[in-house]
Structures are given as C-alpha cells and as structure tokens.
Amino acid sequence: MAIGNMKSKVFPSIFLTIILLVAIDFCCPKDDDYLNTSLYTKAIPSTQNQQNIIIKTPITIENYFQFIDSIVKKHDTLVPYKLSEHLLVRANSWIIDTLKNTDYYLMMQRDSFVYNQKEMIVLPTGAQLILPDSILAQKLLQSFQKTHIDINIPEFKLRIYEDTLKLHEFPIRVGRNERKYLKMADGVVDLKTRTGTGHIVKHVRNPDYYNPVNGHKYFLTKRDDGKVTKLPQIPFIETEINGVRNGQLIHPTTNPITLNKAYSNGCIGTKESDVWVIYYYAPIGTKIKVRYDLTVVDSLHQKLILEDIYN
C-alpha cells in the first residue's frame, strides 16, 4: 500500500461517526482466557481495606483493554460500588503514565524506534493493581462528576478542569478553514471544528483509520521523521455538541508537527500521550465546551488577541 503524506488523510471527517463506528472493534474480550483472570493475576489482601492484584503475565497494548475489562468483570460483584475501567485505572495512575510513555515520539527521544506500538508491554509481570476501597472510589466518582473539558479553537488548546481547578492543558490541531469533497461523507463538507457545549458520548478503543477523501482504510502511517510505522491502538473520544453527534472526535495524530494549526478534517487532534490522559479523565458523560474566543489572558495575566483563523 502506498503511504504518501498521511498527515491530513488518516483521520475521519466531522461527518463520519456512523461510518467509522460500524467498522470499530470495541475491544470486548475475545479470548476466554482473559475471563479467567487467575491465569494472569493473583489477589492479596491489603492493610488498608484494599485488595492488591498482582500481574502474573505481561500484558501488551494489543491485549490491554481486554485484560482490564476482565478485571472489572471479575471484581465488580466483590465491591460495594460500581467498578469501571476508568475508576480502576485512576486508582492506579501509574498505568496512565505507562501508557503515555508508549508515544512513538517519546520513545524516539530515548533512541528507541517502535514499529508496532501494540506489541509494547504496559502491565509487566509483578506489577500491582489496587482495587480501590469505598472511600477512594467515592472520591474518584465525585471527581468525575466535577470534571469538564474546555477547548478554545483559535488558541489550539484543550484544558481539563475539576470545578475551576485546571488539571491539564494540551496543544491541539483543529479543522481546516475550507470546504472539501469527501467520499465518505458523499458530498462537500465544511471542515471547520464546530463550537458549542455537550458531553462525551462514546469511547472508540480500537479505531480503524480511513482516508475520508476516498474511503481507503489505512494500516500504516508516515511519521514526522519520515519513518513508517503501524498505526497505534489509542482511543478515539466521540463528542456530542449542541445535541448533535456529527463525528467531531478527540483523537491522537501520528504527526504532531500539525499541532497548533488548522489542519484536520474537523476533529480535535492531540499528541498520542495526551489522549491517554484525556481518555481516563473523561468517562462517558463528561461535559465539554468548544469555544472560539480570540481574546485570552496568558500566564502573566496579559491580554492577548489571537489570530482569527476562521475569519
């Protein structure tokens, strides 16, 4: 398959949610062995009314979601609250750090070229997962309820807040200021990222990648350094804005050189490492606001006027 310049091709357009999600594998357990988690873990009591789960067999990115789902399924009936993937991982924040470090460009900074990120181990043998007690679980659930995402298009910024406290800030890319024919939308569409308020409605944990111009499916990507790799398995986050699910996704770009630009087909693109953080801070139902504010205040409390990228 010809690779070409995939920086503007590998991601779906703002109108392609249905087409994309039909082809998605949502990472439900495929191997019955994952349902028998005793093959992969053992649980030991903790002195703090918590249970520690010890990893007995290394888990790769390719098998990560199946494995986490199996842990949740096995232990959900054993705790006095509704256990979820997000609750379990936020109680074990080192997992997020490990997933962040599978970012292709972070690995290259360590002089390590990774052709297939799915083969990277994220839960090594001997690692321990804490099954949160009721107090920790309640604290995390309250945090989820108070969390919201703020995106300012001309600032190229995505921020995560808990109430008024800013937890994270990430650079992003947004939709181009143009109209273009897309085969997968069967017409000419406006590629600008849309403003409004809404919430997170779906997580696509094992997405397929398509060229929205011709509908061609991709398996490889050309990186900013010219090297070709397989596409990563990193979640896409689907939003509903102003009551409309129009395919405006938050997802990683394999070409971070396009960040801080109007470059996408309408979606919000981030670094690979940043999506893992956003994903675990944004369970289904998390509120989101996409705005277009040209006047902002910087870290020195100075007022700035941004470029009007959409005229």
TrEMBL record:
Its EC number is 2.-.-.-. Residues 147-291 form the L,D-TPase catalytic domain. InterPro entries: LD-transpeptidase, LD_TPept_cat_dom, Transpep_catalytic_dom. It is an enzyme of class 2 (transferase). Keywords: Cell shape, Cell wall biogenesis/degradation, Peptidoglycan synthesis, Transferase. The keyword Transferase applies. GO terms for molecular function: transferase activity. It comes from the Bacteria. Pathway: Cell wall biogenesis; peptidoglycan biosynthesis. The active site is at H251 (proton donor/acceptor), C267 (nucleophile). Belongs to the YkuD family. This is L,D-transpeptidase. It comes from Hyunsoonleella rubra. The lineage of its organism: Bacteria, Pseudomonadati, Bacteroidota, Flavobacteriia, Flavobacteriales.
